[in-house]
Amino acid sequence: MVKKARNIRKVLIANRGEIALRILRTVKELGMGAIAVYEKPDSEAYYIRAADEAILIGDGPRRDYLDVEKIIWAAHKGDADAIHPGYGFLSENPDLSAECERAGLIFVGPPPHVIRNLGNKVMAREIAKKAKCPSIAGTEDLAQGEEGIEQSIAFGKQHGYPLMLKASAGGGGRGIRKIQNREELIEQLPMARSEALSAFGNDNVYIEKMIENPRHVEIQILADQHGHIFHLGSRDCSIQRRHQKILEIAPADLPAVVLNAMYKCAIETAKAAGYINAGTVEFLVDPKTHNFWFMEMNTRLQVEHTVTEELTGVDIVRAQIRIAEGYPLNIPKERVRLLGKAIQVRINAEDPKNNFMPEGGKQVEVYRSPGGLGVRLDGAVYQGYTIPTDYDSLMVKMTIRGYNWEQTLQRLKRSLNDFLIVGPKTTIPFYRAICEEHDFKAGKFDTSYIETHPEIFAYSEEEREVAKLSRLIAEIHAKKTNPYAY
User: Fold this and answer.
1) In whole angstroms, what is the distance from residue 222 CA to residue 293 CA?
2) Which residues are catalytic?
3) Contact assessment for residue 210 and residue 178, using Cβ atoms and an 8 Å cutoff
4) What's the pLDDT tens digit per position in 421-459?
5) In this structure, are 190 and 243 located in the same domain?
C-alpha cells in the first residue's frame, strides 16, 4: 500500500562516527534538523559538534546504540519525526523499524517484515530462488542437537567439502566459519551456535557449499513505495580480511552481459522481497567462468556506498530520505552511466602486520589529509583525537575517482602518499604496498587476495621525514615552545 507523502522536519541519526557525520550533512542540505545521539565515550566526537542537537543516551560502550527503547526516547526528546540508522548497530534490526511505526516516526529504511525476512539468510536465499536468481546450494536452519549434526554431515556427503558454516542472522563478515572436513564440521558446529547466540541473539546456523576464491560483487539498488526499482551499478568488494571488506571498487570489471544478468537478478530479488529504500544485493562470482550466485541482501546503507555516489552523482542518503517521505524516485537512466573507476579504501587505526590489531587508546598527533580532483574523504577524526578502544577502528574512508583504472590507481597512490596520520598505526602503508603489487595493478583479485599475496605486508615502517617534521610542529604549537631550541 502506497502511503501519503509526509515531509520530514527533523532526523535523529541513530549512529556514531563518520557515518553519522555523512548522513548529517545530507540532512542539513535538505533543510532538515539533525539530531545526534552519543554515549559517554563519544563525548568529544566530531559528529556531535556538527549536529543541531546532541542527546546523551547512556554510559556505553555500544549497548546504548543498540537499545531500541533509548533511540525512540531520544527521538521523542528531540522532537524528531524520522530516524536514520546508518549502518551497523540497529540498522538491520526489524524491531527498530517496527517501533518507529508504532511511535509514529518515519524509519529511513525498509519495513520491519522485509528486514526480518532478508535478515534470515536462509529465507533470503528462498526469496532469491523465487526470483529465479542462481543460489549456492545450502541447508535450511539446522535442527538442534544430534539431528542438526546428522543434517550437516549428510549435506557434506552430498555436496563435498569445503563448506561454509554461517549464522542465519549474520552480517558484516561475522558468524562465518570455513569447514574442511567431517571432523571439523562436528567440532565447529556447537562453537558456531555459541558465537551466533552471542553476536546476533539466536543460535540458528546453516551450511552452504563453499565457492573457492570467488569475487565478491554487489549491486546497489533503490526502491520506492510506488513500485520503481533502480540499480546504481556494481561494486567489487573482493579484497577482504577476516571476511570483512577493506577496499571496494566500482564498477566491477565483468563483461556487460554478466553485469546485466546480475542487475536483473538484483531487481527481481528486491521485487520478490517487497523491498523499499536503499539496499544491496550481494553475489559470489567465479573469476574464470563468470558464473554467479546470490549470497545475501543487505537492508541498509553500505559502508562503501561512496564509490557508487562518486560514479553516478546520486546522493544515496538523499534518495533514502525522499523514499522514506513517500516520494517517487526520479533518477533518469542516463544518470547511471558509471563512467570511469572509483576506489574506496578504509583507513583504520590498525596494525596490518599484527593481524590488523586495533590501535585504540592512541592519540592522533598529526592529521594532514590529501585533496584535489577526484578525492573524497568521509571521516570524523582530527588532530588531538584519541582513537576509541570501545568502537570500530575506522577513522576515515577515502574515495578516489578517475577516468580509467590507470588514472584512478595513480591518484590513489598520490593521495595515500599525501595522507599523513601520526600517532596510531594505520592501514595507509598497507594500501600503498597493495598499489605496487602486480596483480592488483592488473585488476586481478578475488577473496583470497590478502592470503595469497603475503608480500604486501613487507612494507617499510620507518617514519617518513615529513611525519617527523609535522610531529615537531604540532608539539611546538601544543606547548607554545620549541623543545629543541637552544
Assistant:
1) 21
2) 300
3) yes
4) 999 999 999 999 999 999 999 999 999 999 999 999 999
5) no
